Amino acid sequence: MAVISMTNEQYQQARLARDARFDGVFFVGVKTTGIFCRPICPANLAKEHNVSYFQHAHAALEAGYRPCLRCRPESAPNSWAWLGAETSFRRALALIEQGALNQSSCEALSDRLGISSRYLRQLFQEHLGFRPRNTLSTIN
């Protein structure tokens, strides 16, 4: 993801508007609570003098802020968690297309991916609307 250069006024405008276009582009640290959020967080807006802006979630963590439990900044678009889920899903789909479920179980596939079978089913439900086993009938 390209780094976007923004002024404090632009950060403030996007934060106050809870503009979804900036979700994952920057993060907001609130000095009074020690928590950092995504710009779309539904929590009450902090006063501007109590706010710090960060281009990356890890920068907020390094500054001593904790992730918000409401907006989960560690799972913002283009974050490692967000990209990780997409990568796991794509890898699972590729393995299924190569025949990974022809003679083994979903549990074996999830072990191979390093995730739980429950999480594997959840990924397929979110991306395709059905379970991994049902993918076989749509591929063949």
Keywords:
alpha+beta, Arc Repressor Mutant, subunit A, DNA Methylphosphotriester Repair Domain, Ada-like_dom_sf, 4 strands, 2 domains, methyltransferase, 140 residues
Under the CATH scheme, the architecture of the largest domain is 3-Layer(aba) Sandwich
Shape call:
elongated
H and E string:
HEEEHEHHHH
Residue ranges: pLDDT <50 for 5 or more in a row? Answer: none
Number of domains: 2
CATH superfamily of the largest domain: DNA Methylphosphotriester Repair Domain
Record the strand order, biggest sheet: 3-1-2-4
Number of helices: 6
The N- to C-terminal Cα distance equals 36 Å
Gyration radius from CA atoms, angstroms: 19 Å
Biggest β-sheet strands, sense, barrel: 4 strands, mixed
From the 3D structure, determine the CATH topology of the largest domain. Answer: DNA Methylphosphotriester Repair Domain
Question: Structural class, please?
Answer: alpha+beta
- Report the top-level CATH class of the largest domain: Alpha Beta
Task: Describe the protein in words.
GO terms for molecular function: DNA-binding transcription factor activity; methyltransferase activity; sequence-specific DNA binding; zinc ion binding. Its cofactor is Zn(2+). It comes from Vibrio maritimus. Residues 90-140 form the HTH araC/xylS-type domain. This is ADA regulatory protein. This protein has 6 helices and 4 strands, in the order H-E-E-E-H-E-H-H-H-H. By secondary structure, the protein is an alpha+beta fold. It folds into 2 domains: 8-72, DNA Methylphosphotriester Repair Domain; 80-139, Arc Repressor Mutant, subunit A, CATH 1.10.10. Strands 3-1-2-4 form a 4-stranded mixed β-sheet. Strand 1 and strand 2 (35-37) form a beta hairpin. Helix 3 crosses helix 5. The two termini are 36 Å apart.
